[in-house]
Amino acid sequence: MTRPAAAPDDFPFARRLLDWYDVHGRRDLPWKQGRDPYRIWVSEIMLQQTQVATVRGYYARFMASFPDVEALAAADADEVLAHWAGLGYYARARNLHRAARIVVDAHGGVMPDSLDALTALPGIGRSTAAAILALSSGARHAILDGNVRRVLSRLHRVDGDPGAAATLKRLWALAEAHTPRERVDDYTQAIMDLGALVCTRRPDCPRCPVSELCEGYRRDDAARFPRPRARRERPRRSADFLLLRDPQGRVLLERRPPSGIWGGLWCLPEVDVDPGEWIRHRLGATPGEIRERPSIDHGFTHFDLEIRPRAAMVSVSADAVADGADLRWHGPRELGDAGLPAPFRRLLDALNH
Ligand code: SF4
What we know:
Blueprint: H1 12-24, H2 37-47, H3 52-65, H4 69-74, H5 77-84, H6 91-107, H7 115-119, H8 126-137, H9 146-155, H10 165-178, H11 184-197, H12 215-218, E1 236-245, E2 251-255, E3 266-267, E4 270-271, H13 275-283, E5 291-292, E6 296-299, E7 304-313, E8 327-330, H14 332-337, H15 342-351
Parallel strand pairs: 1-7
Antiparallel strand pairs: 1-4, 2-3, 2-8, 5-7, 6-7
């Protein structure tokens, strides 16, 4: 296939990067097959806090169930969250689902093709919107995700607090200046690939296609950039969660409120009262012995949570315990389908081994 002309010489960074990408770029990524903005959007959201290797499997299952924006908009929130279970940062899935409904209701099922309309959708920031447009249509938009920030910070020795507005402004200006006028789709993927494959936490400068333009490499201090974020002491919280089973071997799950940690997901019920009281009050049942199981530590973005499981058999017929919209007994098969967060999934898997 004949490639379009390479980027002109007023974009020396892009030219070198594209030459490298033609040989070393990751063109086998599943979301790189075709230019469907919906497929690109889903991949960009999944990749925001998750590595490519993990995303691949989730992406394939998500696309098999929700092949287009109409299918996603029509899906039940539980079903969408179940496909996200284990990926973490569940607000991403809730926003994706809400945004799909807006695309169907307000845009006739067609993904908007402007930066403003895309950033108006829940969960889509400036860089994600730019990536969707650049990768799907080749429109000239600069991106500034984590990989690009790292590359540009080293290339130009951008010092300063990485979260400060002035630093971001400088990086956005550099990102705009380096984005070529041609092959913007390839360039966008190429700069992400460079950050993921070469200019990683420990940069492999001798292998880098842009080393002769890189100030950090020339001054032999590239790894100093970007400046690490100031480390704050992470708060630690703890909470009790009930692991209740009934005589049929079913497990009781509760749907979390829509916002907050694990928002909208089915989890073991969290209790801030005496577990026996909770069982009597909420289930009208008499608990058997309540046993403490080993705690599990789970890290969120802003704090660490100590999960303290309290296990008991509920010694009444399961029929006496009414299922509700937010409280439901799950048999083994339903448990397999439920969108459980990773620590609860591991806890329940351990019970079965
Ligand atoms: Fe990153 Fe090194 Fe390449 Fe500079 S030369 S962009 S620091 S890999």
